[in-house]
Every structure is written in structure tokens, then in C-alpha cells.
Design brief:
The structure is a single chain. By secondary structure, this protein is of the alpha+beta class. The chain folds into 4 domains: 198 residues, no CATH class; 123 residues, no CATH class; 164 residues, no CATH class; 187 residues, no CATH class. The chain has 29 helices and 20 strands. Strands 1, 8, 9, 12, 13 and 14 form a 6-stranded mixed β-sheet that branches. Strands 2-3-11-10 form a 4-stranded antiparallel β-sheet, covered by helices on one side. A hairpin with a 5-residue loop joins strand 6 and strand 7. Helix 10 crosses helix 11. This is AAA domain-containing protein. It holds the Pfam family AAA_30. Keywords: Coiled coil.
């Protein structure tokens, strides 16, 4: 027992470490750039309704999608003179100032917009009308935009299991020391539901969810005692009867965290800036974030408490997980398995859905081992099999837990379960607002079964079902015996003097069609006709000109016997050129190739449903390389001070660009000098004197060394230097040694030059930083190494370039290669970098495989030519195999080999037929 407890504690400790390592606390809601909506944006009584059960409840929001506004019709006189953007209906049109037309004489001439005063006047009126219209529909467009965002986010929540949709209340904005907080103090899980009939989106909350205090964010900005006090106020509010004030008391309590703190309405957020003065906003906001780990950690703590001091583990599932597997090897080949027929007749196999041999074998293996791994590409019946297994075990009185990495798989399985089993199941999904109601329905179903029937009635019902099953089983056994008799009726018989076995059905066909037995022998020998007339009759006598000899006829008959099985086919069908048909080994290689292609396509669909990629290898490579380059840049700046600085100062981008250009040029010069030193080089100078004081002497010393003279004699030429300065110059050391060689003096010169440039760069950097209040730019010091300076400058330059151009350039490149509904990934680019790179790499690999697979296309093209030319059925079967899905090719390798061998045999018999014809001197084709 102690081993199980130890295993459990180690397991949960490991799980907790993994969860914590993979989770990063976010302090700024602006980082949730895929969806972030504030209360003040939901201002439309016509299209939006907001309800709250109590003042402590989250808002329930219903949004009706507004119809697309109709643009004012273009006046007839302006048609052909103005153009609207196809992709944006809600901007003013472009005016065409001149165009070419053909006049009445057939000549081309240019006409101008300004030629008609009426057109100019009409244009001005129409533009005024459009401007008024655009102003009127602006609120409608905002509602449509919110609706579209929520619609797309609903789809993302269905397919991405690591995110959650929440409402936050009490947004706190606060700069404390060098940390920034822009996060609500409490959050609540929400769901997005879509009603296609009414064209409405409803935002509501799961019935088992509750408000959660954002302790993770507060811990960075408050002390332990402050957080305990906040928790106390929060818990008192949620456990008390709600008042009209709601959570307002909590916000006012938070004011006590800092002097000068304010509580404001959420609609004042636009004008607010994060500063050292704490601001708390009364109002809610909606956003999507990565799932928090709070509940997971709580569950793990509960499990650890449950097993830490336990003498026995009451939870059977937990006990089974923690119990080490039995150390025994199972030979699956020795396990007696059911056939499809056996499983149908076995009353212990309770599968409600259709099965095949492989699926029932899984159940047989489960009876003998603790686990079975089932693998297969999409569409091979894995979910179907799981539905059967779940039904079997539930019907056998067992409880079944089904888990999945993706919630979509659980939805599919739930739909596959029979009603009787589904009513006893509880599906737990994150984007579901009826979890408690679902559980209540399951409990009610079980209660109704128990309460509405007595034990005697249930036993009687079971007995009747067993009798019915046994009756049907015996009937099926009888059918099975009859089928066996029928199969015996068609077994081959052998009777002397036959030289081969004959099936009864074949014998019947042979007798019936005997008159056509020699249709292949389409001989019409050459002969002369002689007419004779006697007293009693007229005679036509035929005189053959060419009769085969006995020897030729004997040889021909031998060959005919050889090719008898294929003779009819050889006469009635055309055969393909065997040299143009690929062998079994070649097809097997193609099958493996195509399987890899199908597998990669399936992998692509796993990432994003509806994603379609362009089949242009060069464009895909270009997109992949550029995505990789931008991803490396973004990984360096993600959630960094540089990206935050650029985001906070977007209005100053032109000035920032000019300053960064100058700073970057200086940095490049400095790095060029610093690169002349190795990582291990250490240069010592006397810090009482500036670098300019050293510069002249170093130049003189280097010149003397290059001319073969002693560098230190140059000190005598510096007569104006005082004794301290000369001592300072004499203190120059490279790696604790006096520089003597040309190479060492060059390194010292490079170091001095780099530091002089660095001083100039620091001045530029400080001036740049001084232009921004409350900036979070790091300080650059003269003692900083070139590598550190380079890291700072590169980070802010990359952040600037990413915001200004790189992100949009990447979207444009990806737009060129991505089609379909999968384009939604571009709305969440930063979070999907890794997935996009993997999908592009899979597609590139696929195209390379396809391009390398020339034999497949040539084979299909060749067989297609013969498809409608009375070609032999075996060749058609080869074509049918090539028409199948690539994923099925591997299942048909043996079939291909059989068909190929059949064609080889036919080809040999074709040559024998020609030989037979030569013996008989037959000239027909």
C-alpha cells in the first residue's frame, strides 16, 4: 500500500510541476489580442439585451446580428465615373477623372469628369449623402463587428481546448516599481451560444461556474496580508445576499492599497493611462485567455491530501492508475478471439452497433490485458469502436471514464452512443452552460428507472430479454448451419477421366453454353466452290486449299489445352503493354509514399479544420521561411518591455523610427569594432581618464609597432602628459599582460573605438527615452558590454519592425497560400506561429513527395487511355485501385500483385495463342 501512496505522491508532484512550467501568468488583458471587449462597447437597445439575475451575477448578453446596411444607389450620371473598393463597402468611392471612349465616327477619344457641371454637382451631393449614411450606420457596423468576433471565437473555443472565455469585473490599472497591472480583480467563466434560426449570439455562464478572485495577478502587487483581506471581503460578498451595490464594496476596499487610488466607471477607460496611481474600473469586460491552472492545482492538492495519510485508497479509478502493472508478457497470438459471427451469437458481447473482426478483437484483448493501443487514420472506426466498448461495459454493470485531448472527440462519441446509454452518461465540456442540468438529468434517469420499477419487474424484464436473445441466437445458429450446407453444394468434384476438378455451377454454365465452346476458333478456311448437277440433285462441293497437317493440329491442341483457362479472355479483350504496367514492388513503394501524403494531409486537418493550402512549392517555401524568421523575432520580443513600449506609443511611430535608425547605425558601428575582440579578451584601463585620452596614444603606439619600433617609447613624445596620465597609459593591459604585438594593439584600439561610439549611443538613447513619460526602457551604461547593448537595441528595433511592417507582411504572404475557413488562424497569428510552421512544413513535404512520385501519374494516365477500349477487366481493376483514396493504397498491395501476375500470365498466353494460330495457319486478328 505504501508503494501505491508513494507512486501517487510522486505522480501528482510531477503533474503539478508540468502544469506550472507550462503556464505563464498574464498581467495585462491587452495581451489577449484575439478577443477583448468592454461593457461600454455593448450600447445598442435595438440589437443588444443585457440581463443579470442579481447584481452579483455575470451579465447574460444577447446580440442579434444587424442586417448589412444598403449603400445609397449610384446616380445614373455617375455610373462608370466612380469606383468602390470590392473589399470595403463602407468607404467613399474613388473618382475617375478621365477615360477613353469610341465616338460616333469610330475613333477613340478621351473624355473628362469635369466636362459636365451636372456631373460635378451630382458627385458632390452623392458624396455628402454617403458621408451622412456612413455616420448613421457606424453604430450598426460596430455591432456587426462584435457579432462577427464572437462568432469566430465560438468556433475557436470548440476546437482549441487550452483556452477559456471569461467575463472580468473591476479592472485594475497600476504601475508599481517596474511592474504593470492591467487586469480585472475577479473573473467568471462564460460560454458563447449561437442560434442559427434567430441569428442571435447569447453569452451566458455555465451553471456550475462561480466568480474567481485573480490571486495570481494580485500576488505580484500586494502583500500576503493584503491579499487575505481582499479574499475575506470577496468571500463575504459572494456568500451574502446580493445588494444593488454588487461588488462595488470590493472595489472601494481595493482603494486602500495605494494613496490616490480612484474608482471610475469603465466607460472612462479610453482616457486612462497606467501610472503609479491605482485606478479601479466599475464595469465588466469579456476576453479569451489560456485556461488558468488554479482549479487543476486545487484538484491535485485534494488528491494528495486524499492519499497522503490513507490506509487504503477508496477511489477505484485512482487506485487502478497508481497500482503498478503486472509484470507479465501477453502473447496476443495465443488469445482466443471471436469472429464477427461468434460475437453476434455470444450473449456476453453486448455491442449495439455494427462490428468487424478487428473491433471485436479489441474487446478480447482487453479481457486479458490492462490496456490496448488502437491506431488508425481518420475514418477507420475508432470512435465507433469506443461507442461499442462503452455500451458493452455499461451494460455489464461497469462504470466507464472516457477522456480525450480534444473536446470535439467527446462530442462525436456522445452523438454515437445509443440513447439508452447516452441517458446514463455525463459529458463534461468547457464551453457548455448546462453542466449541472446535465448531471441532474442523468441522476433523474437513473432514479426513474429504479423508482418506476420494482426489483421483481426488472428481473422479469431481464429474463424476457434473455429468452428473446436466446431464441434469436438459436435461429441464427440454424441459419449458420444452412449456409454451411449451401456452401458445400458448390464444392469442387473430380470424376474420371477429367484431368482437373470442376465446380457444379461451372459445369452447369459449361453445358448451357456448349454451343459457344469453339467461338474462339473463328476459322473460315480458304476453299474453291464446285457446283455439280445430277439427275436427282444439285451439289456444292468445297475444295480446301490449305488443310493443317496432323502434326500442326496436334501442337495447336497442346497449346490450346495450356491456355484454355484464358482463351476466351484473350480473344474478347485487349491487353495492356506489360512493359507499361508497374510491378508489385513498385506499387508498394508508391503506396507507402501516398500513405505518407495522406497521413500528412490528415495531420494538417488536425491542426485547423477547413484549412486549405496552395499547391505551389515555391510560395509555400517562401511563406515558411518568412514565418520562421518572424517567429524568431516575435519569440525574442514577446511580452517584453520593447513590445510594450511600442504598443503604448503607436502615435509616435514616425519619431520613434527616426531615432531608432540613428541608434541602430551607432550600434552596428560599435558591434563592428567589438567583433574584433574575442569573448575571452579582457582589457584593463585606468578609469580616471576618458577614452579620448587613450585614443591618440594607442594610434601612435600602433603606428610604431607596424614600423618595427617599441610602442612604449612613444611616451617620451607626450611631454604634456603629467605623471599620473603617463602611469594611466602604462596601466593598459590585455589579458593581464602588456600589449607588445600588432594584433594586441589592434584589439585595444578596437575596444577604445567601440567605447567612444558607445558613449555617443548612450547620449542618443537617453535623449530618446527622455521624450516618453513613464517609459519602461532599460538604461544603457558605459560599463555594459557590447553584446548586452546589442541585445537591447535589437529588441526594440525588432519590436518596432514587427508592429510596423513584419506582422502585416507575414499576413500577406500567408494569405497567398492559405484558403478556406482555416484563414481564421491569421486572426490569432502570434499564438499560432508554431502550428502554422508545422502545417506549412507538412504541406511542403507533401508536395515534394507528390513531385517525386512520377510513376503513379504515368501509370494512371496510361490505364486511363484503355478504360473505354474493351481492355481486359484485370487492367480495369488496376485502374480502380489507383482511383481509391491514397490512405487505402497499402491495403491493396497484394491485390495489385495478383492482378499484375494475372497480366503476366495473360501476356505469356497471348504469345502462345499467336503460336497456335501459326500452326493452324489462321490469319484472322
Amino acid at each position: 500500500m505504501q508503494d501505491i501512496v508513494k507512486n501517487g505522491l510522486n505522480l501528482f508532484k510531477y503533474l503539478e510541476e508540468v502544469i506550472r512550467l507550462s503556464y505563464k501568468v498574464t498581467y495585462n488583458v491587452d495581451n489577449y489580442n484575439n478577443l477583448l471587449l468592454y461593457e461600454y462597447q455593448f450600447q445598442s437597445e435595438e440589437f443588444i439585451t443585457i440581463e443579470k439575475e442579481t447584481e452579483l451575477s455575470p451579465p447574460v448578453i444577447t446580440i442579434k446580428r444587424p442586417d448589412e446596411p444598403e449603400r445609397p444607389e449610384i446616380p445614373e450620371i455617375l455610373k462608370g465615373w466612380i469606383e468602390f473598393e470590392e473589399n470595403d463597402k463602407y468607404i467613399l468611392p474613388t473618382k475617375i477623372n478621365k477615360k477613353s471612349v469610341v465616338n460616333e465616327t469610330g475613333e477613340e477619344e478621351e473624355i473628362y469628369f469635369s466636362d459636365e457641371d451636372q456631373r460635378i454637382e451630382s458627385y458632390q451631393k452623392y458624396v455628402n449623402k454617403l458621408e451622412n449614411w456612413l455616420e448613421e450606420i457606424e453604430p450598426v457596423l460596430k455591432i456587426r463587428d462584435i457579432y462577427n468576433k464572437l462568432f469566430q471565437e465560438r468556433k475557436a473555443l470548440d476546437y482549441q481546448d487550452n483556452i477559456e472565455f471569461v467575463v472580468g469585473y473591476g479592472l485594475m490599472q497600476w504601475q508599481k516599481d517596474n511592474s504593470f497591472l492591467n487586469y480585472p480583480v475577479i473573473t467568471h467563466n462564460m460560454t458563447i451560444n449561437y442560434d442559427g434560426k434567430s441569428n442571435e449570439i447569447k453569452i451566458t455562464y455555465p451553471d456550475d461556474a462561480s466568480w474567481m478572485l485573480q490571486d495570481e495577478q494580485l500576488s505580484e502587487f500586494t502583500s500576503m496580508s493584503e491579499r487575505e483581506s481582499i479574499k475575506k471581503v470577496f468571500n463575504e460578498l459572494v456568500s451574502s445576499d446580493p445588494t444593488e451595490e454588487g461588488f462595488l464594496d470590493l472595489l472601494y476596499f481595493l482603494k486602500g492599497l495605494a494613496p490616490g487610488a480612484e474608482v471610475k466607471k469603465i466607460d472612462k477607460l479610453d482616457s486612462a493611462k497606467i501610472s503609479q496611481d491605482l485606478k479601479i474600473f466599475d464595469g465588466w469586460l469579456l476576453f479569451t485567455r489560456k485556461k488558468t491552472i488554479v482549479e487543476q492545482i486545487k484538484d491535485i492538492d485534494e488528491f494528495k491530501k486524499e492519499i497522503k495519510n490513507a490506509s487504503a485508497i477508496d477511489n477505484p479509478i485512482l487506485e487502478q492508475i497508481l497500482t503498478p502493472p503486472e509484470d507479465k508478457k501477453i502473447d496476443h497470438s495465443q488469445i482466443d478471439t471471436h469472429t464477427e459471427w461468434d460475437s453476434t451469437l455470444d450473449k456476453k458481447v453486448l455491442f449495439p452497433k455494427k462490428i468487424n473482426q478487428e473491433q471485436v478483437r479489441i474487446l478480447d484483448y482487453l479481457q486479458q490485458s490492462q490496456g490496448v493501443v488502437v491506431q488508425g487514420p481518420p475514418g477507420t472506426g475508432k470512435s465507433h469502436t469506443i461507442a461499442n466498448l462503452v455500451s458493452h461495459f455499461v451494460a455489464s454493470g461497469k462504470r466507464v471514464l472516457v477522456t480525450s485531448e480534444k473536446e470535439q472527440a467527446l462530442r462525436v462519441l456522445s452523438d454515437m452512443l445509443p440513447d439508452a446509454v447516452e441517458k446514463l452518461s455525463m459529458t463534461v465540456l468547457s464551453n457548455d452552460d448546462d453542466r449541472i442540468k446535465r448531471l441532474e438529468r442523468v441522476i433523474d434517469n437513473i432514479t426513474n428507472i429504479v423508482s418506476n420499477s420494482s426489483e421483481a419487474q426488472l428481473f422479469e424484464k431481464r429474463s424476457n430479454l434473455e429468452k428473446s436473445f436466446e431464441h434469436k441466437r438459436k435461429k441464427l445458429e440454424s441459419i449458420k448451419a444452412d449456409m454451411k450446407k449451401l456452401s458445400n453444394a458448390d464444392k469442387a468434384v473430380f470424376i474420371e477421366p477429367m484431368d482437373k476438378e470442376l465446380y457444379p455451377a461451372d459445369a452447369q454454365r459449361f453445358v448451357k453454353n456448349e454451343e459457344h465452346k469453339y467461338e474462339w476458333f473463328n476459322d473460315f478456311p480458304a476453299y474453291e466452290i464446285e457446283e455439280k448437277r445430277t439427275k436427282f440433285e444439285e451439289i456444292i462441293k468445297l475444295h480446301s486449299t490449305n488443310i493443317p497437317s496432323a502434326e500442326s493440329l496436334s501442337e495447336a491442341l497442346k497449346i490450346r489445352k495450356d491456355i484454355e483457362d484464358n482463351l476466351e479472355d484473350l480473344v474478347n479483350y485487349k491487353l495492356p503493354d506489360l512493359n507499361q504496367i508497374i510491378t508489385k514492388a513498385e506499387f508498394e513503394k508508391i503506396a507507402e509514399n501516398k500513405y505518407e501524403i495522406a497521413k500528412k494531409e490528415a495531420d494538417i486537418n488536425k491542426y485547423f479544420e477547413g484549412l486549405e493550402l496552395k499547391n505551389n512549392l515555391d510560395d509555400l517555401k517562401e511563406a515558411y521561411n518568412f514565418t520562421q524568421e518572424v517567429n524568431e523575432i516575435y519569440s525574442d520580443i514577446e511580452e517584453s518591455w520593447a513590445l510594450e513600449f511600442i504598443e503604448n506609443n503607436k502615435k509616435e511611430m514616425d519619431n520613434i523610427e527616426k531615432s531608432l535608425k540613428e541608434i541602430n547605425e551607432l550600434n552596428n558601428k560599435m558591434q563592428k569594432e567589438a567583433e574584433k575582440l574575442s569573448f575571452t579578451d579582457n582589457i584593463e584601463l585606468n578609469d580616471k581618464y576618458d577614452y579620448e585620452s587613450y585614443q591618440k596614444f594607442i594610434d601612435q603606439a600602433l603606428e610604431r609597432v607596424e614600423n618595427g619600433k617599441n610602442a612604449w617609447n612613444v611616451l617620451s613624445f607626450f611631454g604634456l602628459l603629467d605623471k599620473g596620465q603617463k602611469e594611466a597609459i602604462k596601466s593598459v593591459r590585455l589579458n593581464q599582460e602588456l600589449p607588445e604585438t600588432k594584433e594586441t594593439w589592434k584589439k585595444i584600439k578596437a575596444y577604445i573605438e567601440s567605447k567612444i561610439i558607445q558613449k555617443e549611443l548612450i547620449v542618443k538613447w537617453d535623449n530618446f527615452a527622455a521624450n516618453f513619460i513613464d517609459n519602461n526602457l532599460p538604461e544603457i551604461k558605459i560599463e555594459d558590454k557590447a553584446k548586452k547593448v546589442n541585445s537591447i537595441v535589437n529588441k526594440i528595433v525588432n519590436a518596432f519592425n514587427y508592429n510596423k511592417s513584419l506582422k502585416n507582411q507575414l499576413k500577406m504572404k500567408l494569405n497567398k497560400v492559405i484558403y478556406g475557413s482555416g484563414k481564421i488562424i491569421l486572426n490569432n497569428l502570434e499564438k499560432e506561429f508554431t502550428n502554422i510552421l508545422e502545417v506549412l512544413e507538412l504541406k511542403i513535404d507533401n508536395l515534394k513527395l507528390n513531385q517525386a512520385d512520377d510513376k503513379y501519374s504515368k501509370q494512371k494516365e496510361y490505364l486511363l487511355k484503355f478504360k473505354n477500349k474493351n481492355v481486359h477487366p484485370t487492367a480495369l481493376k488496376l485502374f480502380e485501385i489507383l482511383e481509391k483514396d491514397f490512405a487505402e493504397f497499402r491495403d491493396h498491395v497484394d491485390s495489385w500483385g495478383e492482378h499484375y501476375n494475372q497480366l503476366v500470365k495473360l501476356d505469356k498466353d497471348q504469345k502462345k495463342l499467336q503460336e497456335m494460330k501459326s500452326y493452324l495457319d489462321l490469319n484472322y486478328s
